[in-house]
Amino acid sequence: GAPKPTLHYRKEVEIRTTLQELSLYFIFLINLCILTFGMVNPHMYYLNKVMSSLFLDTSVPGDERINFKSIRSITDFWKFMEGPLLEGLYWDAWYTNKMLYNLKNSSRIYYESILLGVPRVRQLKVRNNTCKIYSSFQSLMSECYDKYTSSNEDTSDFGLEQETEWKYSTPNTSSPWHWGFVGVYQNGGFIFTLSKSKSETKNKFINLRLNSWITRGTRVIFIDFSLYNANVNLFCIIRLVAEFPATGGIITSWQFYSVKLLRYVSYYDYIIASCEITFCIFLIVFTTQEAQKIREFKSAYFKSVWNWLELLLLVLCFVAVSFNIYCNIQIFLLLGELLQNTEKYSDFYFLAYWYIYYNNVIAITIFFAWIKIFKFISFNKTMSQLSSTLSRCLKDIVGFAIMFFIIFFAYAQLGFLVFGSQVDDFSTFQNAIFAQFRIVLGDFNFAGIQQANRILGPIYFITFIFFVFFVLLNMFLAIINDTYSEVKADYSVGRRPDFELGKMIKKSYNNALEKLRLKKPQKDEDNKGMKGDLAEQARREGFDENEIQSAEQMKKWKERLEKKYYSAEIQDDYQPVTQQEFRE
């Protein structure tokens, strides 16, 4: 019959296969890095920073305390609309009052970014009597406006009904909903767009303010507009949000999205396009390989964690490709339509929304792509020790995690109930959980906790620090440390991975040099040198000659047993241990 493969041959095949797979994967990873970094432009941050400074930090003339971030009342809101917002949107002259261009054209913010179309202001309201008043207070209060939900929304016209801003507009099904601080808001509402003229827009604001466009039922106002900077080929989609909670007051938030919707403009963009094509080719190759593995190994394929990571990475890659295709199609279909009429609002928020999702999927994909490198590094001795440590102490960590989170969530519930109405860090149960993680890391507000409750505050803080920080975390470290010591001890007596990646590469390199006759074989010399070095080191550490000889005999006996029972070279040729070997 055919000769059985030797251990050396099997290792050579495994080395060759692993190195080929590693080389191919590194090419894929480099291509993915070029692709992802090509999507990100350093100018994105600076564009967002400039625009946020203009619209968020600029104060109302004559009242330095009022800007968009500090709005707390309806009066402050109208001051912002008629002041910083109006001045920020309309740049129709140079600083020397010299006209730069035709006023019929769009405004150029900071003289560089063109305002696309006209800005839009949108309001959502709730109906009266959407909440129930307690019977004892019904004589004092006849109106009740609940928090915003789609079922509570007011769709009836009001005020000066002949104008569009006083009439309800039905939601657009394609636009995404907005997740605010105190509610989730759908599209539609009472909408009006600003004019190309600064004076007309100011008169519009004054008219709306005098006729009470904002009412008690108002729950949120959106200010949407988009910019394009041709210098850096970036769109900046801006949304300013003012929420009117049922408790009263105003909570402001904002979104600044700098995105590159025009993908292929410069030569570098075409390099990115070639990387996208290469990415798709790699995706087809990897999918074919995994399909072959599943067909070959069947259910055994799913027992490996690395195989699950492979499948997750493939799914994320397919999702990223799908998002990319969808975004490009939508940009191709909508961009020309949005730019065609400059007198209307250009809804680029929809495009930016999906582009941001695509960017998030790509970010998660490259994260797991880097994690997959551990599959190859695990052949290294150090990484093998770490992985063995984690796998061996997994049961202990799970048991510890149950105990840890029981105590952790108990403290989170206590903190939320005791301090939730006074301290922002504990205002919700989720915030309380994050606040406790911050306490563990040393970031806490003890003064706020103590002020909220002078008795339970210090008790909560001291006991939490003691049980969680000093006891539980040190128990976790002790579990890891003890297991790592055990694994390291096992490796010190000879239990090592089947092969190490570094040694594989070095051995392949030396074999290549020997075959090219650029280097002489040094196997015997290395073995002699290694034995001599170990014996010399033992002598320096104080061991006598009898102990050294006994250790060498024990090592020889161990190697013979490993060769007889654990070597893949003679797996099929079982030979029992002789009585003479057993006596030795």
Automatic annotation (TrEMBL):
One of its GO terms (biological process) is detection of mechanical stimulus. It comes from the Eukaryota. Residues 67-262 form the Polycystin domain. Disulfide bonds join C131-C144. Exhibits a lower single conductance but no spontaneous channel activity. May function as a regulator of calcium channels or a channel component involving Ca2(+) homeostasis. Belongs to the polycystin family. This is Polycystin-2-like protein 2.
